[in-house]
Design brief:
The protein is an alpha/beta fold. 48% of the residues lie in helices and 14% in strands. The longest helix is centred in the middle third of the chain and has 20 residues. Bound molecules: 3-methylmercaptopropionate-CoA (MMPA-CoA).
């Protein structure tokens, strides 16, 4: 019996459910450029904790308005005047949310437009696929604000662009956009149309895969990156043992054997 997600309980996330199991989750604070206050982080924790057990086949993660996300809610942080321990706990909730995304087993496709900055880039980097368009730009302005990253950038952004580039982004406030950002790996797709259209197309495509297969792709690979090569190879064998013998895969294999299944071909020139 799948878990029931009551979408009415979310105030800062706008959630739409499509017929094919794709859920469109939009951070909906456009007046604050979708800055992440603690309430929004808690809603992300809640949604991404439940999604793997609720029959969600894929998620498009978007931001309302012209910008994807302006990162930490600097006004809330200023007003709260937090202690070091308080802010450590804030960061731990960010990690909880983003780890649920990355390790949850449900494909998350981020539709990026405008600013993807600071904690907004940390949010985007926890998605499995990032789609950018000509409005999208990436930066880590923490250095200029007297701050440091706290939502996993030292792990995920450093992984995407490399340690040296991340250090440069933080020291100088360097902005990446367009083809250069794509080439660096900040996004896997660059579209002429708004990023949301392409993200939805990709999410629909991934939702056609078997859920257990997607679960493995969107959790096991991340876990295995944290293991020694020996342990990762062992874990890979165990995961493949479960996934590659799932009853639901039999009809797909039968279609291949009877030559009904599509073959892998090179793209048209
Ligand atoms: C905000 C925030 C925010 C906007 N927290 N309220 N992140 C940053 O340093 C990014 C800060 N924001 C910006 O650079 C710009 O706002 C944007 C490039 C994102 C958008 O520019 P623009 O001209 O469209 O908007 P704006 O006029 O700057 O802001 C519009 C409103 O959004 C305004 O509120 P208003 O009540 O005066 O209308 C802004 O105050 C509000 N706003 N960004 C709170 N970030 C776990 S550690 C993570 C570390 C970090 O993420 S550091 C944050 C880095």
């Amino acid at each position: 019996m799948p878990l029931d997600i009551d979408i009415a309980r979310f105030a800062n996330l706008d959630i739409k459910v499509e017929d094919d199991g794709v859920w469109i989750v939009t951070v909906n604070r456009p007046d604050k450029r979708n800055a992440l206050d603690i309430a929004t982080i808690e809603e992300l924790v809640s949604f991404f904790s439940d999604a793997p057990r609720a029959g969600v086949r894929a998620v498009v993660l978007a931001g309302a308005g012209d910008h994807f996300c302006a990162g930490l809610d600097l006004i809330e942080h200023h007003d709260a005047d937090r202690s070091p321990a308080d802010f450590m706990h804030v960061c731990l909730r960010w990690h909880e949310a983003f780890n649920k995304m990355e390790y949850g087993g449900v494909p998350v496709i981020a539709a990026l437009q405008g600013a993807v900055v600071g904690g907004g880039l940390e949010l985007a980097s926890a998605a499995h696929i990032r789609v950018m368009d000509h409005t999208t730009y990436f930066a880590l302005p923490e250095g200029q604000r007297g701050l440091f990253t706290g939502g996993g950038a030292t792990i995920r952004v450093a992984d995407l662009v490399g340690k040296d580039r991340m250090i440069d982004m933080m020291l100088t406030g360097r902005v990446y956009q367009g083809q250069e950002a794509l080439d660096l790996g900040l996004a896997q797709y660059f579209t002429e149309t708004p990023s949301i259209d392409k993200a939805l197309e990709i999410a629909r495509r991934t939702a056609e895969n078997l859920p257990l297969t997607n679960f493995a792709i969107c959790s096991a690979i991340s876990h295995m990156q944290n293991m020694s090569a020996m342990d990762a190879a062992y874990a890979e064998a165990v995961v493949a043992g479960v996934v590659n013998t799932q009853p639901d895969a039999r009809s797909r294999l039968a279609d291949f054997a009877s030559k009904k299944a599509a073959r892998v071909r090179r793209n048209a020139d």
